[in-house]
Amino acid sequence: MKQPAFRLEPVLKLRRTEERAAALASAQAAREATEAAERVERDAAALTQRALPGHPTGAAFIAAMVASAAAAADVSAARSVAVARAEQAELVRARWTAAAQRTKGLERLRERHVAALQAAADAAEERVVDDLVTRQHSTTRTSREETTWTD
What we know:
The chain is an all-alpha fold. It has helices at residues 9-48, 58-146. The protein contains two helices and no strands. α1 (9-48) packs antiparallel against α2 (58-146).
């Protein structure tokens, strides 16, 4: 006998696919956020290593200060990018979590469906066994009743 299929199976497959896609997007966003943070650390370390020329002239000093200011602005911009990437990664992770929760809900429904089918199959098997025992008992009892002590 063919068991009834879980009617939401196509939706469950779609949700699993969405969850996998969200997981991949989350991993990519986390990787990009980590790379941006590492870039900021490298740029900040390079900025602290800057030194003025040995005996600077006025023009060399101004050029060094302008270059340092530009490098500091670059580090600040990189920090802003790193923060934005981290926030984006958090949003993508939240989408992944939501997709996983939707998938889990359907998986629970599927588990309940399978459990209900198993319970129905167990009940049917129990009825068959009960019918067999009842028939066997009734045929045994009938044959005993035919040979009574009064015969």
